[in-house]
Design a protein that fits this description.
Blueprint (H helix, E strand, L loop, with lengths): L9 H39 L17 H25 L2 H24 L5 H16 L2 H6 L7
Organism: Nitrososphaera gargensis (strain Ga9.2)
Protein name: DUF2127 domain-containing protein
Keywords: Membrane, Transmembrane, Transmembrane helix
C-alpha cells in the first residue's frame, strides 16, 4: 500500500513566505527598537547634556522605555511567525489558526498606525498583505491541505 502524500498548495507556500518575511522584519524592528532605546538614547542624552532644547518638539521627543517595550513585543511575534511558517510548510492544522491570528493582528496594527499617521502609504501595504494572506488561508485547497476543510 502506498502512503498518500498531499502536495503543498501554492497558497500555503505564499502564506509561509509572507510569515517568514514578517518574522525577519519583526526581528529587525524588535532588535532595532530595543537597541535604539537601550543603547542609543542614553548616548544621545549624555552627548546633548545641558544644551538648550527649545527646538525639540513633543513629537521629536521619545518616552524612555517605549522602544524597549515595543521591541519586546515584536520579538515573540517574530518567533511565532517563523513557527507558523514552518507549520504551514509541513501542513500542520494549528498553523492555519496561528497564521490567521497573526494576519489579523498585523492588519489591526497597520490599520491603527495608518489612522494615527496617514502620511505613510507603506503601512497600508501591510493591511493589504494581511488581507491577501487571509484570502489564501481560506482557499478550499489550502484549508484541506492544513486539515481545516474536514470535519472530525
Amino acid at each position: 500500500m502506498q502512503s498518500a502524500t498531499k502536495s503543498r498548495p501554492r497558497g500555503a507556500t505564499i502564506a509561509a513566505t509572507v510569515s517568514i518575511i514578517g518574522g525577519i522584519a519583526g526581528l529587525f524592528f524588535g532588535i532595532g527598537f530595543i537597541a535604539q532605546d537601550a543603547l542609543l538614547h542614553p548616548l544621545i542624552e549624555s552627548a546633548i547634556g545641558d544644551l538648550p532644547r527649545q527646538n525639540l518638539s513633543a513629537d521629536q521627543a521619545s518616552t524612555p522605555g517605549f522602544g524597549i517595550a515595543l521591541g519586546t513585543a515584536f520579538l515573540p511575534l517574530a518567533i511565532v511567525s517563523f513557527i507558523a511558517a514552518s507549520g504551514l510548510l509541513k501542513g500542520r492544522r494549528w498553523a492555519w489558526t496561528a497564521t490567521l491570528v497573526l494576519s489579523i493582528a498585523s492588519m489591526a496594527w497597520y490599520a491603527f498606525t495608518v489612522a494615527l499617521i496617514p502620511s505613510n502609504g507603506g503601512r497600508m501595504l501591510g493591511v493589504i498583505i494581511g488581507a491577501v494572506t487571509i484570502y489564501f488561508l481560506y482557499r478550499p485547497h489550502v484549508k484541506a491541505y492544513l486539515g481545516k476543510g474536514l470535519r472530525s
